[in-house]
Amino acid sequence: MSMFGFKEEDIIEHVDWWKINVHPEDITEVMASYEDKVRNKDIHWNTAYRFRCADGSYKYVLDRAHILYNEQGEAVRVIGAIQDVDDAMRHQKERRQFISRLQEQNEMLKEIARINSHEIRRPVSNILGIMAMLDLEKNEPALNAQLCALLRQSTAELDATLFRIRDKLQQMRE
């Protein structure tokens, strides 16, 4: 138990000592797993859980054990080994968080692509159409005023869409 910082005299070879050092959030599941193996008369048991160190911190461990039964089929002894898998479990957790973050960013990028392909295209098409219709040489003030109003509206829509894209990109950076 040196990997958990316990001194030899601190260790009591009794199931109660082990139980009080299993993380409170894990003990129910760990015991259910063990009891299921005993109920089915399985001789091998293994499970992962958090185990308390002498300093009060917890480490992830993999517990592998051999269950011994008497002639009446009762579990009388458990011989096992606990392996420190704390680094591996923490790396796995970090990897899951990283993948989750990548998936969120991917969804944001899909939304940005949708905005680019649909919402930017509409005001740009309007602007191009207005520019084609705008004829400053014929001097039609009423038509040109209408076209300028439409041009202002389309550029405002385009500006708002670009700000939405900027906001999405900012969210991705956070």
Automatic annotation (TrEMBL):
Keyword Transferase in record: yes
Catalytic activity: ATP + protein L-histidine = ADP + protein N-phospho-L-histidine
Claim: GTP-binding is one of the keywords in the record: no
Enzyme Commission numbers on file: 2.7.13.3
Class in the EC hierarchy, top level: transferase
Pfam families, per database record: PAS_3
Keyword annotations of the record: Kinase, Phosphoprotein, Transferase
Gene Ontology molecular function terms on file: phosphorelay sensor kinase activity
Stretches assigned to the PAC domain: 45-97
NCBIfam families: sensory_box (TIGR00229)
Name of this protein: histidine kinase
Organism per entry: Chitinophaga barathri
